[in-house]
Write a structure and sequence with these properties.
With 171 residues, the protein is an all-alpha fold. The protein is built from eight helices and no strands.
């Protein structure tokens, strides 16, 4: 997520995450762990005081239910929610958000470069959160900085095959 300042980028990222996690989504996410109907809870309120149903058959399916020991997870979430004063929705946003680059174009270019120089990546997925303009903003503001650093090509051999362009051996 780009911004003219780190604060602006953080605020934009917060707004996008909030838009991506609707009240119904937040409750459904929690229900996967609690294994209970939590639809009566206020998504902007505290976590449910009721304990997860550990004995009943699963009421939902999803990645969170793959957690074998739910009690420590719930305990940790409750501690975090209390310490950070997080509502149900805020907690779900915090625990379900994947890492990403947030900051000024210069900061993001520096982070991408750092990963490339460390050999810690073989590529990135650019997710244009604010379609259709998010990708354009990244291309216009970050790619030139990466090109200046020498970590993003400026041209392609028009006669190269895709395999050659990707640096792969001929089939």
């Amino acid at each position: 997520m780009l911004g003219d300042s780190d604060a602006e980028a953080e605020e934009r990222a917060r707004a996008i995450r909030r838009a991506q996690v609707s009240p119904a989504t937040a409750i459904a996410f929690l229900e996967q762990v609690w294994n209970r109907d939590l639809s009566a809870y206020d998504v902007d309120g505290p976590l449910p005081e009721v304990e997860p149903d550990l004995d009943g058959g699963p009421i939902t399916r999803g990645r969170v239910r793959h957690v074998r020991d739910v009690e420590p997870l719930v305990r940790g979430w409750r501690e975090r929610a209390e310490a950070e004063r997080l509502s149900i929705r805020d907690l779900v946003i915090e625990v379900s958000t994947r890492g990403g680059f947030v900051g000024t174009p210069e900061h993001i270019a520096a982070e991408v470069d750092r990963y490339v120089q460390a050999g810690a990546t073989d590529g990135f997925v650019v997710v244009p959160h604010t379609n259709p303009y998010g990708l354009d903003e990244f291309v216009d503001r970050v790619i030139p900085l990466l090109q200046e650093r020498g970590v993003y090509r400026q041209s392609y051999d028009p006669d190269a095959t895709l395999r050659q362009t990707l640096g792969l051996d001929a089939a």
